[in-house]
Amino acid sequence: MTDPLREKLAAYKLEHRYPEQLAARFPRIVTRIMELWGTPNLQAYFDELLIMDRHDRQGFPAEIGAELMSVSMAHDQIMGMQEEHHDVWEHVRESIESQLTELGFEASADGFQRAVSQGNVAAVLLFLGAGLAVDHREAEGEWTPLIRAAFEGNDAMALVLLQHGANIHATDRDGYGPLHWAALTGHEQIIQLLLDRSVNVNQPSLQGFTPLLQAASQGHERVVRKLIAVGADPNTATNEGWTALHKAVANNHLASAVALLDLGADATARHLDGETPLSLAQAGNNKRMADLLTLAAGLQARQRARQRQAT
């Protein structure tokens, strides 16, 4: 499996700042660093880790503290590089505008996004080579190039962006990241690229939607099975109480409902308004789905009764 932090540092020739011991002993911290990368919250997280001024917390060993400081400095350095290239378009015009023109793209933010959307790897590499940040957004809260590639199912583009350090944890203004959009659209190769880089399979959007809920809502059974196999919780609910099973049932995706039930989804889960998967099936006059859920609910009730007796 690849390491997104290592790739991010390598993209800026800062491989020597990779926190080897931290990654080996505290991998969750490295994951959290990447989740916060490029946001103001990361510095606060570094401060929390480094200061350790609470009486109930034991500080890190000196070598770990040194690595934390080093990767913190690397983050600042990379952010500084990106800030220096904030007006990157002048540099682009001076060096490679003619090459972009030959490929049919203008040296602008719109040109970069259009190159990503059209899957023109050569043009994207020219933009990145000129210093444009790989996670450049058209506007605050809009899609990063990787999110766009994930939604559109462009495997080759997604791989290029990832190889240049694209942030797999970046989200849009609603909290949806690349895995959410790849799961919604069923692009399995991109999902695998993200899973290979240890993306958080249970990352919720601002409304609590996980990639599994996205896949279930569209009936992508293979994606549903893949996500649960790598740790997705089949019973995670949105802020309003929708589970993946609710979504599969509501949209009449029988195969996905079967997969979810096979892999531990609760057939009696309740939405805030009291709706269960069974009540949704009944309201939709979906007899086959309703029969399945009635059977599953009965089996799960008997299983829970046996577990109570055993304890």
UniProtKB/TrEMBL annotation:
InterPro entries: Ankyrin_rpt (IPR002110), Ankyrin_rpt-contain_sf (IPR036770). ANK repeats lie at residues 141-173, 174-206, 207-239, 240-272. It comes from the Bacteria. The keyword Repeat applies. Pfam families: Ank_2, Ank_4. The keyword Repeat applies. Keywords: ANK repeat, Repeat. GO terms for biological process: regulation of gene expression. Signal peptide: none annotated. This is Ankyrin repeat protein. The lineage of its organism: Bacteria, Pseudomonadati, Pseudomonadota, Betaproteobacteria, Neisseriales.
